[in-house]
TrEMBL record:
Localization annotation: Membrane; Mitochondrion
Family: In the C-terminal section; belongs to the peptidase M41 family. Belongs to the AAA ATPase family.
Single biological process term from Gene Ontology: mitochondrial protein processing
Ranges for domain ATPase AAA-type core: 2-98
Name this polypeptide is given: AAA+ ATPase domain-containing protein
One cellular component (GO) term of this entry: m-AAA complex
Location of region: Disordered: 383-414
Pfam families named among the record's database cross-references: AAA (PF00004), AAA_lid_3 (PF17862), Peptidase_M41 (PF01434)
Keyword tags: ATP-binding, Hydrolase, Membrane, Metal-binding, Metalloprotease, Nucleotide-binding, Protease, Transmembrane, Transmembrane helix, Zinc
Cofactor(s) essential for the protein: Zn(2+)
Keyword Ligase: no
Stretches assigned to the AAA ATPase AAA+ lid domain: 128-167
Protein source organism: Corethron hystrix
Length: 414
């Protein structure tokens, strides 16, 4: 960008907005020009960005305030915005848009499923799919509905069924099915690797419930994957985290127990384990040796800058290795204890390639933990329908309560 072009465009934008007042100005990805000044390097382009930001600040709240112009902005990096931009009088009201929960996903599915010819009702399908897609956002949900319709068209069906949507979810999570040929030995290792994950998670109380596991190769390079139903919790205990860590290590543990060697197939598992363990030590204060401390990295700092000393960093590394080694040994012991169950699941995987929650129950029995009997309700429409009915019943009961006239009337908040 040429010198002066950025501020000039900002002036022209607000001039046009004032001419069309009342007017709303929306700036998407505001962090492109609104990041903290003096933190962006040493190039001349950084000066031009700062000049653009300065002009934006003047237009929003300078000597000549704009009447009748409301300024909105969107960003995924609110943490790097300049403090002058977010102070009172400018972008002082911040609204966080989180990923939808199961109820929100159900409503979004209801919108996108309208107009699609379904084998069942929109209510049933939206509830079931909401349970199968934790962590998905609106764009992902729209993609699933579109991909499900494509899958139905490919098989020549007149309507879209749950099998089509399940294939769509698999495609988004794991990628396209690959026709890559793998050797019999590799297929055997993959089956036991995935069976290790499935069985360990089955017998770890705080692990996420299994939805399905497959050994069909994917275009992303994965030779198999397991899909779970993460518990949408705001808080987790150390024991809950360690159960998830053990489940992630179970694939490699199964390789060691059954074949006496490990492969490169656990690379992604190890990456996730490393991230989780360092978070417990650096952020959550869950390590006795490091103590009740939280070391948050400055997103604007250089890569070599750390908020702790080299000595503390060495202690963190030692503790992380110790925790992972302990968790891995616990996982190996569990796989040895459940060796017959792992073998049954692996052999069924080699036969069917994909098995689901019901197959596991038929093979090794139900999970031995309280509350899991409601698992199917959680991923079915009945869970949502009953929750809605209970909510409506509570509202009816609330209407029977006496009105408290001592509360003064005030303006309603939307």
């Amino acid at each position: 960008m040429f010198v002066g072009v950025g501020p000039s465009r900002v002036r022209d934008l607000f001039k046009e907005a004032r001419a069309n007042a009342p007017c709303i100005v929306f700036i998407d990805e505001i962090d492109a020009v609104g990041r903290q000044r003096g933190k962006g390097g040493f190039s001349g382009g950084n000066d031009e960005r700062e000049n653009t930001l300065n002009q934006l600040l003047v237009e929003m709240d300078g000597f000549n305030p704009s009447t009748g112009v409301v300024v909105l902005a969107g960003t995924n990096r609110v943490d790097i915005l300049d403090s002058a931009l977010t102070r009172a009088g400018r972008f002082d009201r911040q609204i966080t848009v989180d990923k939808p929960d199961i109820t929100g996903r159900k409503e979004i599915f209801g919108v996108h499923l309208n107009g699609i010819e379904l084998e069942g009702t929109t209510e049933d399908y939206s509830g079931r799919l909401a349970g199968l897609t934790p962590g998905f956002v609106g764009a992902d949900i729209a993609n699933i509905c579109n991909e499900g319709a494509i899958q139905a068209a490919r098989r020549g069906a007149d309507s879209v069924g749950m099998i089509d949507f399940e294939k769509a979810v698999d495609r988004i999570i794991g990628g396209l099915e690959s026709h890559k040929l793998i050797s019999k030995e590799e297929r055997n290792i993959v089956a036991y690797h995935e069976a290790g994950h499935a069985v360990a998670g089955w017998f770890l109380e705080h692990a996420d419930p299994l939805l399905k596991v497959t050994i069909i190769p994917r275009s992303t390079g994965a030779l198999g994957f397991a899909q779970y139903l993460p518990k949408e919790l705001s808080l987790r205990t150390e024991q809950q985290i360690m159960d998830i860590v053990c489940m992630a290590l179970a694939g490699r543990a199964a390789e060691e127990v059954f074949f006496g060697k490990v492969t490169t197939g656990a690379s992604d598992d190890l990456r996730r384990v490393t991230d989780m363990i360092y978070q417990t030590i650096q952020l959550y204060g869950m390590n006795d040796k490091v103590g009740q401390l939280a070391f948050h990295k400055d997103p604007n700092a250089f890569g070599s800058d750390k908020p702790y000393s080299d000595a503390t960093g060495q202690i963190m590394d030692e503790e992380a290795r110790k925790v992972v080694n302990t968790a891995y040994q616990r996982t190996v012991d569990l796989i040895k204890e459940k060796k017959d169950e792992v073998q049954k699941v692996a052999e069924l995987l080699k036969e069917k390639e994909t098995i689901n929650h019901d197959d596991i129950i038929d093979l090794i029995g139900s999970r031995p933990f309280k509350g899991d009997e409601n698992y199917q309700d959680f991923v079915s429409t009945r869970y949502l329908r009953e929750g809605k009915e209970n909510s409506e019943q509570e509202k009816v009961e609330d209407n029977d309560e006496p009105i408290n006239n001592d509360i003064p009337e005030g303006p309603a908040l939307a």
